[in-house]
Amino acid sequence: MKLSSQEEYGLRCLLHIGRQPQGGSLTIPEISRSEGISEPYVAKLLRVLRQEGFINSVRGQSGGYALARPAGEIIIGEVLAALGGRFYESDFCERHTGTEDLCTHSVDCSIRSLWMALQGSVDRVLNKITLADLLGTAQQISGLTQLAVLEAPRR
Known about the structure:
With about 160 residues, this protein is mainly α. It has a single domain, classed as Winged helix-like DNA-binding domain superfamily/Winged helix DNA-binding domain (Arc Repressor Mutant, subunit A). Helices cover about 55% and strands about 5% of the residues. It is built from eight helices and two strands; from the N terminus they run αααββααααα. A two-stranded antiparallel sheet has the order 1-2. Strand 1 and strand 2 (about 65) form a beta hairpin. Helix 1 crosses helix 3 (about 40-50), helix 2 packs across helix 3 and helix 6 (about 110-125) packs across helix 8 (about 140-150). The radius of gyration is 18 Å and the shape is globular.
């Protein structure tokens, strides 16, 4: 499982915006310089984040991008899903049928069960972490993710 550059850079841009004082905003060139990402790519990422309701754009001389809601209300699982989708989607098997119309394992598939379990575990962690959490220290995040894993149901 790999994270795409869109997910990584999009989350970095959102974090950078989230570090601004209440009411502060950042421009595309400012974010581009700070994060070492090209302006066109930052613009693309911010467009996705704006369309999904995580940030607002403000026009004018003192305009830029700001969080659309408090950082504590922005769930990282939702952000990553907006930027790149989930690891396992319900239509996964329909998209991976090989040369057949239907997957030859569509009735009893242990692989599908693995992907669903993995997605459930990832969701449990990512849906407990907010942007406000990520704005904390690496040690705080490590504690949150360990707690989320420990809270996962055991078989």
